[in-house]
Specification:
By secondary structure, this protein is an alpha/beta fold. It has six helices and eight strands, in the order ββαβαβββαββααα. It has helices spanning about 10-15, 30-35, 95-100, 120-130, 155-160, 170-180; strands spanning about 1-5, 10, 20-25, 45-55, 55-70, 75-90, 105-110, 115.
Length: about 200
């Protein structure tokens, strides 16, 4: 059985049974997230279940949404799809959250009434899942694809690997002569003729 999630709730009360909850929220309700998006289109779909672990109440589930972002390669709109699991542990204060061990799930601090708004529960997680650099996954979808330089197969075959060092023609001919004689020229030989006095 899946129940809709209240807009504000007490996790301790919802953890008393094994009911699965779901919520659908317009992305326009997440004010801090909006700073990173092109517009407020789209919605969050989340399904989750509350549980108890010792004295703590946890919530775990899956977030699904699609962000409308600006591609940093072509500066055109793009979609970034998110389908990720999450797990949070609820705490009564920031101090309690900071005292949790590193292995603990991400903490969510409740208000003074032991409640939380459903938007506050998910907004930080949505921001964390934003791509570091928004770019079209497929270069063919990107408007900048026409400006990307490609090396064709013929050019690739003509390239032996790393380019030769840029040295003068005289030094290059001397190097070839010494290599043909099987001798290696000492690069410090030029220092013998320096007058240091």
């Amino acid at each position: 059985m899946v129940k809709p999630t209240p807009s504000r709730f007490n996790p301790d009360l919802l953890a008393r049974d094994s009911t699965q909850y779901s919520v659908t929220l317009p992305l326009g309700q997440f004010s801090r997230l909006q700073e990173f998006l092109l517009d407020d289109s789209g919605e969050l779909n989340a399904t989750f279940r509350f549980s108890r672990r010792k004295k703590s109440v946890l919530v775990a589930g899956t977030l699904k949404t699609s962000y409308r972002l600006e591609c940093q390669r072509c500066l055109e709109p793009m979609q970034a799809d998110i389908d990720e699991p999450f797990e949070f542990v609820f705490t009564k204060s920031l101090e309690e959250a900071q005292a949790l061990p590193d292995t603990s799930p991400d903490p969510v601090v409740l208000d003074e009434n032991g409640q939380i708004h459903v938007v506050d529960l998910f907004e930080d997680e949505l921001i964390l899942h934003l791509p570091t650099v928004a770019r079209h996954e497929q270069i063919e979808e990107c408007e900048a694809s026409g400006h990307v330089l490609f090396i064709d197969a013929a050019q690739a075959e003509s390239m032996d690997g790393a380019p030769e060092p840029l040295i003068g023609q005289q030094e290059q001919s001397e190097q070839k002569q010494s290599d043909s004689k099987g001798e290696r020229k000492n690069p410090f030989d030029v220092l013998k003729n320096l007058d240091l006095h």
